Amino acid sequence: MKQIELVEAAYLKKDITKFKAGDTVSVYVKIKEQDKVRIQAFEGTVIRRQGRGLNDSFTVRKVSYGEGIERTFLVHSPLIEKISLIKSGKTKRARIYYLRGKKGKKSKVAEELDQA
Fold this sequence. Notes:
By secondary structure, the protein is mainly β. The chain has a single domain, classed as SH3 type barrels (Roll). The protein has one helix and five strands, in the order H-E-E-E-E-E. The protein has one helix spanning 2-9; strands at 24-33, 36-50, 57-64, 67-74, 80-87. A five-stranded antiparallel sheet has the order 4-3-2-1-5, with no helix packed on it. Strand 3 and strand 4 form a beta hairpin. The longest helix is centred in the N-terminal third of the chain and has 8 residues, at 2-9. The chain is globular, with a radius of gyration of 16 Å.
């Protein structure tokens, strides 16, 4: 296992924002269209974080025009330009799949206030 971690270390990103399930994040993704590359933002609530090392991934959920959209990203993917934390959410669970069944204000996650 030690050798695998050494090989993976070269591909890991160093400037990753710390976030967890319940946080609202904005993920900037590189989109290639023909010969041009543009950056598209996907903003929503993190409903899952799993894996470690190069396999570290997270799922972001947002509601657009009344339709729920979920997208899974690899944290260390070269297609991700940056991940910015919008606000921290206060949850008691690591996987907040219950948001899928909620509508309107009930689908909001309470904001976590800094105790520092």
